[in-house]
Amino acid sequence: MSTNERWAAPASQSLRPGPGFRISEVDTGGTPGWRGDKDDAEDHLAARATRLSDLQELLYAHGRAGGTRSVLLVLQGMDTSGKGGIVRHVVGLVDPQGVQHTSFGVPTPVEREHHYLWRIRNALPSPGQLGVFDRSHYEDVLVVRVHELVPADVWEPRYDEINAFEEQVVAAGTVIVKVALLVSLDEQRERLRERLERPDKYWKYNPGDLDERSRWDAYQETYQAVLDRTSTDTAPWHVVPADKKWFARLAVTELLTEALESLDLGWPPPDFDVDAEKARLAAMRP
Amino acid sequence: MSTNERWAAPASQSLRPGPGFRISEVDTGGTPGWRGDKDDAEDHLAARATRLSDLQELLYAHGRAGGTRSVLLVLQGMDTSGKGGIVRHVVGLVDPQGVQHTSFGVPTPVEREHHYLWRIRNALPSPGQLGVFDRSHYEDVLVVRVHELVPADVWEPRYDEINAFEEQVVAAGTVIVKVALLVSLDEQRERLRERLERPDKYWKYNPGDLDERSRWDAYQETYQAVLDRTSTDTAPWHVVPADKKWFARLAVTELLTEALESLDLGWPPPDFDVDAEKARLAAMRP
Fold first, then answer.
1. B84 and A97 in contact by Cβ < 8 A?
2. What is the distance between the alpha carbons of residues B217 and B24, in angstroms, rounded to a whole number?
3. How far is CA A140 from its chain centroid?
4. Is there a contact between B189 and A87 if contact means CB atoms under 8 Å apart?
5. Alpha helix segments (H runs only) across chain B
6. What is the distance in angstroms between the Cα of B157 and the nearest Cα belonging to chain A?
7. Closest in A84, A193, A268 to B281, CB measured
8. Are the Cβ atoms of A200 and B267 closer than 8 angstroms?
9. Which of A12, A118, B42, B264 is the most exposed place for a label (fewest CB within 10 A)?
10. Residues near A178 by Cβ (< 8 Å), separated by ≥ 6?
11. Are the CB atoms for B140 and B158 separated by under 8 Å?
C-alpha cells in the first residue's frame, strides 16, 4: 500500500540520508526514487492527493474519538527552497480543521525568555491533528550557529537534547516527518531574481535573504551536522531535492501519505449504542 | 467585480436578513439570489475558487508587508448544518498558511475563569489572516440561553456587548463575515440517520445531538434573537439555507470573495530598493 509502481521504494526510504551522506553531493535537480517525469507526477499526485485527504480524515476522526496519534511535518530549507509552496500545495490538500500550522520566525521577546524548545512544545499537534512547522527548533542549531548567536558550548549539547525531545514526542503518539528541502545556489539566484522582477512577488523578498545567501557554505556545514546528528530511527530526516518544485511537492505528499499509512488507523468504533440511538431518533418529531 | 451574472445581486445583500425577518419562514432548501442549478454552481465555483485563493494571497501578502487588515468568518448553525463541510470545502480552497481556524466547544476550566469573550479575543485573526470560527461567542447567547446556564440578567446585556466588541474588531481592521447555516428538522434527521448508518460517520455522532434536537424550538427562538439584535451594519449576519450543501458552499465562497474584494488590496510596494537588490544579487557568486 505504501509503495506503488511509480516509486522504486517507499519515499521514506529513498529520501533518507544513508551512511556517509554528504550534502555537497546531493543533486538538487534530481528526483530520487521516482520512476517518471513531471507529467507522470501530475497524474500520480491527483490520485495520491485523494488518498492523503482520506487518511487525514481518519486521523482527525481518531482524534475526535479520543485517540492519541498525530503527525508532525517539520520543514527546513534555505530561503526560496519552497517551504511555503509545500504548505500551500501539499498541506492544502487536506481539511483545514485538521491542520495546525506554525511558522517560526526570529524569537519574540517572550520566546527569548524561555528555553528554545518552549515555543516548539506549545505548537505540537493535538491528537488527531497534522502539525506543520515552517522552520522549527532546528533553527537553534542552524541560524544560531551560523550567526554565532550563542557559543559552541551552548549549541553543541542541543543535538542530543533535540533527539531526546523528539523521542518524547514520538513516544506520546506523534509521527514526525522531517523534511530538508535542498536547492542549489543557482536555483536560489533564479528564484530571488524572480522575486525582484515581479511586483506580485516583492512581498516574498527580504534584503536579509542575500545576507543569508552570502553564508551559503556555513549553512551547508550546519545542515550537514543536523543530518549527521539528528536523523535518528525514531525521527529520521528526509532530504528532498527541491530545484524541481513538482518533485518536492510529490515527494512530501508521498512522505505524509506513508506516515499516515504507518498509523494503520480504522474508523473509530461507536462509543454509544447505535441501535438505541436510531430508535431515539426515529421516535422524535417530525 | 463583486456581482456577476449568476448572482442576482451580491450574496452579501441577498442573504442578509431584512426588516421583519422571521427565521421560521426561511426556506432552508432555497437558493436565494442564485440564478442557476447545482451543475451551474459547480462550474461557477471552480472559477470563484481561483479568485478566492488569489484574493487570500493578496491579504496574506498585505499582512506580511505590515498591513493591518484581516477577515473573520464566523460559522454558526445547529448540529449537521454543515459548518465542518464549509471549512473543508470552502476554507480548504485557500493557502493553509493564511488560515487561523478555531473550533469553540464547551468552555474549558481555564476558559470558564475568564469573561466569555476572552477565548474569542485570543483567537482573532492576525493581520493578513483569514480567521475561521466554528461556533463562537454567539454560543454564549444560544446554548447558554437554551440550557439556562446563566440567568437572563447575565445573558441579556450580551447582545449589546457583542455588538460593541465586534465594532472594536472591525475598527482594528477586520472584516467580519457572520454566517448562520440553517437546515430543516427533516434534513437534520436525515443527516443524523446517515451518521448512525455509516461506520465511517459514527465519529461525527454524539448522543447529545439528539438532546439539542429536542430543543429545536428554543434554538430557533434564540437564533431569531441573535439575528434581530446582532445583525449590525458593521457586522451583518448572513442567513444561508443549508439543506442543499452545494448552495451553502457556493454562498459562503461568494461571501468570502466579496469580503476580500471589499478590502481592495493591491500587491504591497517593495520596502527596499529593487534596483540596488538586483545589483547585490548579480554581484554574488555563482
1. yes
2. 10
3. 17
4. no
5. 11-14, 38-64, 83-89, 109-112, 118-122, 143-146, 152-155, 158-171, 185-197, 208-213, 216-230, 245-263, 274-283
6. 32
7. A193
8. yes
9. B264
10. A74, A76, A230, A231, A235, A236, A237, A238
11. yes
Residue B26 near residue B253, CB atoms below 8 Å: no
A216-262 pLDDT, tens digit each: 999 999 999 999 999 999 999 999 999 999 999 999 999 999 999 99
- B-facing residues of A in 137-156 (CB < 8 A) are none
Mean pLDDT across chain B, nearest whole number? 96
Q: How confident is the prediction for chain A on average, in pLDDT?
A: 96
Q: How many Cβ pairs within 8 Å bridge chains A and B?
A: 123
Rounded Cα distance, B223 and B229, in Å: 10
- Here the cell at position B129 is 489572516
Do the chains contact at B185 and A95, CB–CB below 8 Å?
Answer: no
Per-residue pLDDT at B4 exceeds 80? no
| Nearest C-alpha neighbor of A141 from the set A168, A125, A160 | A160
**Measured distance CA(A266)–CA(A234) in Å, rounded:** 23
Q: Is the pLDDT of residue A39 over 90?
A: yes
Of A242, A231, A238, nearest to A257 (Cα)? A238
Q: Summarize the confidence of residues A75-103 as an average pLDDT.
A: 97
Show the CA angle centred on residue B12, arms to residues B7 and B15, nearest 5°: 80
Give the predicted TM-score (pTM) of the model. Answer: 0.96
